[in-house]
Amino acid sequence: MKRILAWTVPVLLVLGTAGLGAAGWYYSGMVIDPSGGQNSYPLEVTEATADQVTLKGGGDTAAPGTYGLTWKDGNATLGKVISTGPGTVTREVLKVRRGELKPGVRGYLDRWVWANEDPESALGLPYKKVKIRSELGEFPAWQTEGKSKTWVIAVHGRNANASEALRITPAFHRLGMPVLGISYRNDAGAPAGPDGKFHLGATEWEEVAAAISYARSQGAGGVVLYGYSMGGGIVAMAARKLPKEPIRGIVLDSPVMDWNGPIEAGAREQGVPLWLASVGQFVIERRTGISLAELNHVAHAQEFRMPVLLFVDDSDTGVPPGPALEFARVRSDLVNVVRTQGGGHVGSWNVDPEAYEKTVTDFATKLPMASL
């Protein structure tokens, strides 16, 4: 029996360690492997008329405000909730933009409103496609028109694209500020990083630096950096790494200010034990060479030197707002925080577009602009 135990225990330890490592590898991949964005359609249209639609399924279909409904070959803009029933929500239809909205259509509720579109097709705003050169190659971007010498550089979230910034583009257009919607490494159509993995802002900020150089080459005297979700973390890293000039201010919408929060939130959503999330964090660092401690912008809050406008939604379960709120508390001298309720992750605009845009406009007009 002792002989059996003598070799059985080490074998079990090896097998347990291997299993733990495999699980950590799998979970780390959920964080750092590009997935190409939304690829499922959890909602079913059960009724549709010219001015309202009834949706079945999903967990956030009754969220307040304005949203897009996107399906395989179509898109509609939805307004307020009209009524709710057992497992269904009926919402106002503001506009069917593409395709036919009819019973049987399967789609998803789209916080971007205009998924995978450009400023002209979505908003009727003139724009041009441009290439931004970084050390990895040429990165596609779009650029709207404007006479201001202060540009906005918009950075989308993880597995998203520049369309995420279309919601706020009209507000800056009214101010005459050009908006540059950029891509970064591992985006569709953009160069891949050396290892093909997301580095959660640790290297992606270099594309923001390249975008600033491009803007300045086109006559910009200053920039406002605007980041959503992981894009907020990328913007935060750029703000820490780059000289204050020419960054006049930054806007962060549901930003990842500390990756421990969303990694643990993702574990809970997937039913993964929190201790395994810790293993995943360890594996993430080993697979990418990044330091999650270095990406904790709350711990590095004293490195920020420019005004910050911060949006968080208290219903956000994907990126819990605690770290961002702590960042705002620590740097109350720089940060103006706006809290919404019911919008979820990057949903503060959707809750009340008019109020959101007014806040952004007020923030932008108070910054030291090169020329408005």
UniProtKB/TrEMBL annotation:
Residues covered by the AB hydrolase-1 domain: 151-262
Gene Ontology terms for molecular function: catalytic activity
Protein name in the entry: AB hydrolase-1 domain-containing protein
Gene3D superfamilies per UniProt: alpha/beta hydrolase (3.40.50.1820)
Pfam families with a match to the protein in the record: Abhydrolase_1
